[in-house]
């Protein structure tokens, strides 16, 4: 039997869709999850992958945190960029509360997290975590959207790292078959269905965001950052996002 992997894309607060997918898999796909050897993700997707690997029993708690976090950001005058608001501190507090003491041991070799080197802009996939704190730092780095989350990236092993979604939105592992999950319609295994008639294919940081027909559009580094910021700013959880999460159960 081929090796199975499960990978979650970067998507900002649209990660609530991926939490819905995770819940559906836990409820109805136990056999599939039991066959998955490795989990992977970038940015918000890495957080969902981490929960499935280390604390699946806390999924409801994670959903509540996501709703509260998004609501808190929404209340700020300028969102996460409001002076005095510490987006990364809020995220760290959530991770500290959710991850078990031995999360790094459980995640070792089973979890692959995409991060981006702040200076070289090269991608790195991290799968070994010396401590729980190291795991938290890697997850924070993978979720650090420049400007939106702060100015300076996350320090990890003497280097500065930022959002993994900037260089690898949807990790596909080199060994085995990777099942991909994304809240963006396209050629992913699990994603929303798009029934429009236009013919567009949009690729963002090596991930096809939309695949409708034969056209093709490549987006450069600056556009990746801008698009990611737009996603994060637009990621305000409300009735529509909740419905999306409920709809995949």
Automatic annotation (TrEMBL):
<feature type="active site" description="Proton acceptor">
    <location>
        <position position="163"/>
    </location>
</feature>
<dbReference type="InterPro" id="IPR002641">
    <property type="entry name" value="PNPLA_dom"/>
</dbReference>
<dbReference type="GO" id="GO:0055088">
    <property type="term" value="P:lipid homeostasis"/>
</dbReference>
<dbReference type="GO" id="GO:0016020">
    <property type="term" value="C:membrane"/>
</dbReference>
<dbReference type="GO" id="GO:0005811">
    <property type="term" value="C:lipid droplet"/>
</dbReference>
<feature type="active site" description="Nucleophile">
    <location>
        <position position="43"/>
    </location>
</feature>
<feature type="domain" description="PNPLA">
    <location>
        <begin position="6"/>
        <end position="176"/>
    </location>
</feature>
<protein>
    <submittedName>
        <fullName>Patatin-like phospholipase domain-containing protein 4-like</fullName>
    </submittedName>
</protein>
<feature type="short sequence motif" description="DGA/G">
    <location>
        <begin position="163"/>
        <end position="165"/>
    </location>
</feature>
<dbReference type="GO" id="GO:0004806">
    <property type="term" value="F:triacylglycerol lipase activity"/>
</dbReference>
<dbReference type="InterPro" id="IPR033562">
    <property type="entry name" value="PLPL"/>
</dbReference>
<dbReference type="GO" id="GO:0019433">
    <property type="term" value="P:triglyceride catabolic process"/>
</dbReference>
<dbReference type="InterPro" id="IPR016035">
    <property type="entry name" value="Acyl_Trfase/lysoPLipase"/>
</dbReference>
<keyword id="KW-0443">Lipid metabolism</keyword>
<keyword id="KW-0442">Lipid degradation</keyword>
<keyword id="KW-0378">Hydrolase</keyword>
<dbReference type="GO" id="GO:0005737">
    <property type="term" value="C:cytoplasm"/>
</dbReference>
<feature type="short sequence motif" description="GXSXG">
    <location>
        <begin position="41"/>
        <end position="45"/>
    </location>
</feature>
<dbReference type="Pfam" id="PF01734">
    <property type="entry name" value="Patatin"/>
</dbReference>
């Amino acid at each position: 039997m081929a090796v199975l992997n499960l990978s979650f894309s970067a998507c900002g607060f649209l990660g609530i869709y991926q939490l819905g997918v995770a819940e559906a898999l836990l409820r109805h796909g136990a056999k599939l999850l039991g066959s998955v050897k490795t989990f992977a993700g970038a940015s918000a997707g890495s957080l969902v992958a981490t929960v499935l690997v280390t604390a699946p029993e806390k999924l409801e708690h994670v959903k509540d945190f996501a709703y509260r976090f998004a609501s808190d950001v929404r209340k700020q005058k300028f969102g996460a960029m409001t002076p005095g608001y510490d987006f990364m501190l809020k995220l760290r507090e959530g991770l500290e509360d959710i991850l078990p003491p031995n999360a790094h041991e459980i995640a070792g070799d089973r979890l692959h997290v995409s991060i981006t080197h702040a200076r070289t802009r090269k991608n790195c996939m991290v799968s070994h975590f010396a401590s729980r704190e190291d795991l938290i730092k890697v997850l924070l780095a993978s979720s650090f959207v420049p400007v939106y989350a702060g100015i300076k990236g996350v320090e990890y092993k003497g280097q500065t790292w930022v959002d993994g979604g900037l260089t690898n939105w949807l990790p596909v592992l080199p060994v085995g078959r990777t099942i991909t999950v994304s809240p963006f319609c396209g050629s992913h295994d699990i994603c929303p269905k798009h029934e429009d008639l236009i013919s567009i294919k949009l690729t963002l940081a090596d991930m096809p965001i939309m695949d409708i027909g034969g056209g093709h559009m490549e987006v450069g580094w600056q556009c990746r950052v801008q698009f990611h910021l737009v996603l994060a700013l637009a990621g305000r959880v409300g009735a529509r996002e909740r419905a999306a999460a409920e709809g995949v159960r």
